[in-house]
Amino acid sequence: MTTTDPFYWRAFNVLMRLLGVGATFAGAVVVTTFGLGIPAPPGVTPAIDRISLVAGALVALLGLGFLMLPPFRPDQGDDTLVVNPFRALTEPKRRRWWTGDRLAG
User: Fold this and answer.
1) Helix (H, G, I), strand (E, B), or coil: what is residue 15?
2) How far, rounded to the nearest angstrom, does the alpha carbon of residue 101 sit from its chain's CA centroid?
3) Which domain holds residue 16?
4) What are phi and psi of 74, to 5 degrees?
5) Does residue 42 have a cis bond before it (omega within 30 degrees)?
6) What DSSP character marks residue 104?
7) Exposed / middle / buried, residue 76 (Cβ in 10 Å: 0-12, 13-18, 19+)
8) Residue 81, strand partner residues
């Protein structure tokens, strides 16, 4: 297997975290603004839209899922992308959350 520059895998992990933050924020905005109708225009009562609530909740949960994924670094020995958020409980690898770099100690 050919080795790749560690910069690419750091960038991959940072972009994955930014995608998670952005999707979580966008989902929260959709739920509050379009789903719950907050803030309502003056003189209008807030209307609840169930489709926007469900869509916003799904986008927010997708963003939280990206934030819960452990960092993936094949240049540091990871062989497959594990989508199990509880992998950190079973493997004692200590890594930085943003980049996946190993922590000292």
Assistant:
1) helix
2) 18
3) 6-90
4) -65, -20
5) no
6) P
7) middle
8) none
On whether residue 105 sits in a domain, the answer given is no
Residue 23, phi-psi category: left (phi > 0), alpha (psi -120 to 50), beta (remainder): alpha
In angstroms, the first-to-last Cα distance of the chain is 29
Total structural domains in the chain?
A: 1
* pTM score, whole prediction: 0.78
Distance CA 91, CA 35 (A): 40
Q: For residue 101, is it within any domain?
A: no
State the Cα–Cα distance between residues 76 and 72, nearest whole angstrom.
9
Q: How many residues does the chain have?
A: 105
Owner of token pair 């199990």: 84
What is the pLDDT tens value at each position of the chain, 105 positions in all? 456 788 888 898 899 999 999 999 999 999 999 888 888 778 888 788 899 999 999 999 999 988 888 788 878 777 766 666 565 555 556 788 788 888 876
